[in-house]
Amino acid sequence: MRLATLHLETARYGDVYRAARLGRLRQQMIRHIKRTDASAQKVEQALASLAEATSTHGPARAASVGPRLCALTPDDVRNEAAAKEEGLLRYST
Q: In the chain, where are the structural domains located?
């Protein structure tokens, strides 16, 4: 950067120095804002996929979760057995 004067105080606090510093700070702020926006988008996407995967009534539950990964409670076992007896359950998990 070329300064208009060699006098240190005028060069350091002069209009040219302040304009150059302001431009540099503005570029840094824009870069930080873009980086923050990109990170926020990634977090929102991760939260959306987590919410979809953990929803109990979502359309992607059966496809994305796959086989049952959680432990069955005794009520689940009784309900499944009753459904099998009544012919309501066509497949076993």
A: 1-54
